[in-house]
From TrEMBL:
PANTHER family, alphabetized: GLYCOLATE OXIDASE IRON-SULFUR SUBUNIT (PTHR32479:SF17)
Known role: Component of a complex that catalyzes the oxidation of glycolate to glyoxylate.
The UniProt record lists the keyword Glycoprotein: no
Single Gene Ontology MF annotation: metal ion binding
Keywords annotated in UniProt: 4Fe-4S, Electron transport, Iron, Iron-sulfur, Metal-binding, Repeat, Transport
Name of protein: Glycolate oxidase iron-sulfur subunit
Cofactor details (free text): Binds 2 [4Fe-4S] clusters.
One family name in Pfam for this protein: Fer4_8
Cofactor(s) needed by this chain: [4Fe-4S] cluster
EC main group: oxidoreductase
């Protein structure tokens, strides 16, 4: 949480809601034109019309993770919108303003909660693009962010990490290092990265073309992803098996790379655009009717490619056509309807809504519909479902303390359900919640939605999804 003592935030809510004010107030601006010398340049500043949509009613407050933690107005959506307004009116981009913007998880729970339809998702990305262009970060922050973006959006580099990481896990070196607390003392952020790493199994590469079982109903492309592909290959294999069983030919272009989600969500607009162009190229001539995604953060960005590449004359139309095809795997399966038989799974699960699936994409009923159709399975809802688990892309690495608080809060609510398995639809959530559940001392199974469905179709026992009692 950042100090707000030096900024005057004493205006009434009505005053906070107006970007263009009457009278001779110094610093008032015309719609869409940032005041000279202020925080923002003229290239896609926070949209003044969207800022004006916020009436500061407060419906967002109980859903905002940072406001729930700290109760600080400037660490709420409406507070950050007020800071955007100030930036347009000529306030400089100082460390305090950036601190509040950086503290946002980008979970978009406020978008779901807002009765006025404020597009906070658009505003926060516009603002973060400005921050990355104009704010001079500390050397340590630059180094950490440089490391993150030199690694996580690059599938080949992530796969190179598998060998050393797997060796450390096999020998117990990772646990020994954790017990010493050395890495925590050197860098809490690096310690978080190490602690979040999942237990690695065998690589499960997919062929470029997988034929449907029985009659073909659809041809779909499949995103392999970065973290998903390197650290959760079983999720991709399960996705391909379920799609195949439900009558889909699955195309997995070998040329595909990162979708650009991490870059887009952290203000690195040119980098995100480059990743998006390459992904459009990879799938463009594949002949697929849909592009299937099994990672919530990736899907939310890919569905927004039309906006991301709107100013690129060579890609604008192509990006829009691509985005129209993008679907979360749960959406595709509900759209098709089941043909493969479901076998019973006698167990209880708690379903965690990944923020970029529920809030950013509005996909809530489809995963539940798929899970509730499995015989013998009991689905239990989690209290405070709208509150983020603290993963939020790379937020848990950049901001380990609030992320840990949110993770522990989520873990406590999950444990209270008494469920045997936690199910969600995003690799970041799986890593974050697994770590928090382990800290809580209540081991339980962790699975992606598609892995549960795959187990049912394959006729696997429920024990396949329960905690491995032999793991130390």
């Amino acid at each position: 949480m950042t100090d707000t003592s030096q900024r005057d935030t004493s205006g009434t809510l009505g005053e906070m809601g107006a970007v263009v004010e009457t009278g001779d107030r110094a610093g008032a601006v015309d719609w869409g034109i940032p005041a000279p010398g202020g925080a923002f340049d003229a290239h896609k500043p926070p949209d003044a019309a969207l800022i004006g949509d916020c009436v500061h009613c407060g419906f967002c407050l109980p859903t905002c993770p940072t406001y729930v933690l700290w109760g600080e107005e400037m660490d709420s959506p409406r507070g950050r919108i007020y800071l955007m307004k100030e930036g347009l009116e000529g306030e400089p981009m100082d460390d305090e303003m950036v601190g509040h913007i950086d503290a946002c998880l980008g979970c978009m729970a406020c978008v779901t909660a807002c009765p006025s339809g404020v597009q906070y998702d658009v505003l926060i990305e516009q603002t973060r693009n400005q921050v990355e262009r104009h704010h001079d970060r500390s050397a340590a922050d630059k180094a950490l962010r440089g490391l993150i973006f030199a690694l996580f959006p690059h599938p080949k580099r992530l796969k190179l990490m598998r060998g050393p990481l797997k060796l450390a896990q096999r020998t117990g070196l990772d646990r020994a290092l954790r017990r010493t607390g050395l890495l925590e003392r050197i860098s809490p952020q690096l310690a978080v990265m190490e602690s979040l790493a999942p237990r690695l199994g065998k690589p499960q590469p997919l062929p470029e073309y997988i034929h449907a079982t029985g009659e073909r109903r659809m041809v779909v492309g499949m995103l392999v992803g970065c973290v998903q592909g390197a650290f959760f290959p079983g999720v991709n294999s399960a996705t391909a098996r379920v799609l195949r069983a439900e009558g889909c030919d699955v195309v997995v272009p070998a040329s595909q790379g990162c979708c650009g989600a991490l870059s887009a969500h952290n203000g690195r607009e040119p980098e995100a655009q480059d990743f998006a162009r390459r992904l459009v190229d990879s799938f463009e001539d594949s002949g697929v009717e849909r592009v299937v995604v099994n990672a919530a953060g990736c899907g939310s960005t890919m569905k927004e490619y039309a906006a991301l590449l709107a100013d690129d004359p060579a890609y604008a139309e192509r990006a829009a056509a691509f985005a129209e095809k993008v679907r979360d795997v749960s959406e595709i399966l509900v759209e098709l309807g089941p043909v493969a038989p479901r076998h019973p799974l006698e167990m209880t699960i708690a379903y965690h809504d990944a923020c970029h699936l529920a809030h950013a994409q509005g996909v809530r009923s489809e995963p539940r519909q798929l899970l509730e159709a499995i015989p013998g399975l009991e689905l239990r809802e989690i209290a405070e479902a709208e509150i983020c688990c603290g993963s939020a892309g790379i937020y848990n690495v950049l901001n380990p303390e609030p992320a840990r608080e949110l993770g522990d809060r989520k873990a406590a609510n999950i444990v209270r359900t008494g469920a045997q398995v936690l199910v969600t639809a995003n690799p970041g959530c799986l890593m974050q919640v697994t770590s928090a559940i382990e800290r809580a001392g209540h081991p339980m199974g962790m699975a992606h939605t598609i892995e549960v469905l795959d187990a049912s179709i394959q006729g696997a026992p429920a024990s396949a999804l329960l905690p491995d009692q032999t793991a130390s």
